[in-house]
Design brief:
Structural class: alpha+beta
Number of strands: 17
Distance between the termini: 68 Å
Shape: globular
Strand content: 35-45%
Radius of gyration: 20 Å
Helix content: 10-25%
Amino acid sequence: MTSHEIDYKIIGDDIQLVEIELDPQETVVAEAGAMMFMEDGITFETKLGDGSTPNQGLMSKLLSAGSRLITGESIFMTHFTNRGFGKKKVAFAAPYPGKIIPVDLKQSRGQLIVQKDGFLCAAMGTKISIHFNRKLGAGLVGGEGFILQKLDGDGKAFIHAGGTVIERTLNNETLRIDTGCVVAFEPQIDFDVEAAGSLKSMVFGGEGFFVATLRGTGKIWLQSMPISKLIRRLSIMSPASHKESRSILGNFLEG
């Protein structure tokens, strides 16, 4: 299915939104709950799946939608269509501070691999599915790096990331990255998750037990502040966490 052609504008700096302009009968598909505002004439409908295969049977839709539960996303997606006259706008906001990245899938060989919670919205006709990393290293880690999302199509898609975003082009190179900092990469890039180093480095280095390794030639996108890392940092800084730490230390000293 050929994707709808949509115009867009990204607004904001650190907490961004994407404003999409739809011609009559054009549709954009988004994650449930991502909509910020829509103009009169835009209608929306919550459906199972992305609508990229309109003749898909109910069982296929259920299997496709159910697989999204593995990534922690809703099994439903919302379709926004311009049913009015003239151009109409609908806007979507990222769920946490960071950047929205526009991607033209035609320029990425029609496919992009995205972190499991990175998809925001896309032109109708884009297929959103899960992508399992079959590498043993990634499988042992589970969570980050094991289950990703795959976007297929020939139109515009929008992904979101935390903090500052870096776009890099690898030229037959290898880059090792914190597993949570990988946002997206082109399909020709080889992706694996490997041990961070020696046991001493993994335990005392503070960089975690695993790193993501990207090899090959193609584009990659990285984020400076993944939401998982932010949540961990906030939990460490919380008063309850400090109280618990003091209690553990006091028991240790008394013992």
